[in-house]
Prior knowledge:
The radius of gyration is 20 Å and the shape is globular. 32% of the residues lie in helices and 22% in strands. It contains two helices and seven strands, in the order βββββββαα. It folds into two domains: 1-82, Ribbon (Complement Module, domain 1), CATH 2.10.70; 84-142, no CATH class. This is von Willebrand factor type EGF and pentraxin domain-containing 1.
Amino acid sequence: MNHRGNLAKINCAFPGHLENGKIFYVGTLAEYTYHPYMSNLGQNKQIRYECDKSFKLMGPNGSTCINGNWKPNIKLVKCVKVNHLSEINLNDTLKTELDENIISIGLKNERKAKSLFRSNVQRRLKLRRLRNRNHMRQSTAK
Length: 142
């Protein structure tokens, strides 16, 4: 509290760089690339993490400024290199491996089975990204 008894404004500093990725400030009307030279962001402001092409986000997809700290901490976020078949969320690994086996059993051509599996995973990832973006936008609009 400051000398007048009001809560002092607590800001969050730039969280650091995301190797092989970018950090975006989630504004009211749009998202902006967040740079170190930008001013500190205030209480309840949000940032979103996005990895470069051929990299997969591991950890939370964003953080919120709470009492001068980014929660969850960016140290929990990593962009890891992926190959063409490993774009799978760790929580979905067992399910998608089962899906691939079912597809492989149903199709005689293994190459066609893997192609179908890959396109199914990519479709799921696109839907998940869209849901995450919409969720972040909706939570900032409140």
